[in-house]
Write the structure tokens for this entry.
Amino acid sequence: MEIRVAVCGAAGRMGREVVRAILDAPDMELVAAIDRQEIDEDAGMLAGSSRCGVCIEPDLRAALARTHPDVMVDFTVPESVDENLKLALEQGVRLVVGTTGLTPEQIAEAAALSEQRGIGGIIAPNFAIGAVLMMQFAAQAAKYLPDVEIIELHHDRKLDAPSGTALLTAQRVAAARREAGVVPVSPPEGAVQKVPGARGAQGDLTGGVPVHSVRLPGLVAHQEVLLGGLGQMLTIRHDSFDRRSFMPGVLLAIRRVRTLDRLIVGLEHLL
Ligand code: NAD
């Protein structure tokens, strides 16, 4: 039986890519396409595919109640995603969430609701397999080279900074350092930032790993993890040149989320 999927944010850059991937997947059916823009446009035509008969509609609650999807995919904006997740969980719809910018509190709240209802979901700041591997390699390497900084580079329309991928990488690096009982040696005590934030975002969310955000036209999603040591540096880099790079991960998540009864964070748990 085909997996019935609703796409929230279907008229956005990622949403259109997801719509096209679902229309091409033999085991999936697009049952609803929700967005605030391009209302009444055919979602398939918008995605550069053929007409599919599913038109963009603005009301998520009504769309879920009418179509009863198995899974809702969300690629919207940081200020909408929290509300969308709750609406889906309340209607018993499983979640595949790519939108970044959710706070730890919002994720914890969604996880509690998902567990309470026994409805599975996945939140992944990056669905590209290469980026998942980059995070794993970075965590592994940080045990031996604990001095780490992250440079993340994205297109100029990205709304949140640092990126969700950079935050998750930083958290994984910090956890690996804690587990291995190693501490970074830099920066030196008493180092002064002439401009606040000059060494990048730091703090609880990044586990103390400096994260530098670059926003420029022409970019898609790129990240470098720099690990410095005495007389050496290891650079782990991942580039998404095209939004298609995220689609195998999104389709995998749609297929596998049906086996989950709680919310998980990170695609690596499904690989
Ligand atoms: P975009 O601005 O092109 O698209 C967002 C779409 O969401 C827009 O069409 C907007 O109208 C729509 N929208 C906003 N609020 C809505 C609501 N309440 N209901 C329905 N639709 C709503 O952005 P994008 O480049 O497609 O990125 C979307 C999100 O995906 C961002 O948070 C981005 O960081 C994230 N992203 C994640 C991955 C990943 O692998 N997880 C990859 C790339 C981008």
User: Anything to note?
Assistant: The longest helix spans residues 164-180. The pocket of nicotinamide-adenine-dinucleotide is lined by residues 8-9, 11-15, 34-37, 60, 75-77, 80, 84, 98-101, 124-127, 158, 221, 246 (CB under 6 Å). The mean pLDDT is 95.
